[in-house]
Amino acid sequence: MNEKQMFAERLKNAMKTAGYDVRSSVLEREFNLRYWGKPITYQAVRRWLRGDSIPSQEKLQVLAHWLAIDPHQLRYGDGGQLAVKEPLAVWGTSPSNEERQLLALYRSLPIEQRKLVHEVMETFAKAYATKERSDN
């Protein structure tokens, strides 16, 4: 087994361990939700899972953070520790039509506007969490 195929096996195992179906469509969606650069294509993630290519270091970092695994272990597989820094978010239900529309609009924005929207949402979330604590 060559280096690319071994990476593909580690990626598949990390997805399974994190509770995701090992499918190109799942990897594409979850990766693009977390990556601030140009969205990756279905074909690119398919090549990762087939062992035809290995993502760049920047993309590898995003994958590792999402899958709660040490980037070095994901890339090279030599016994790195699991890097669980926060609980994995699992959607209990499928996104609503409104949520899908918002996500589509968000993805259509240029990267700088995406970052701004992200900051605004984080600010609202923090303010709401503070308000909830003070109400209790």
From TrEMBL:
Signal peptide: none annotated. One of its GO terms (molecular function) is DNA binding. InterPro entries: Cro/C1-type_HTH, Lambda_DNA-bd_dom_sf. Residues 40-74 form the HTH cro/C1-type domain. This is HTH cro/C1-type domain-containing protein.
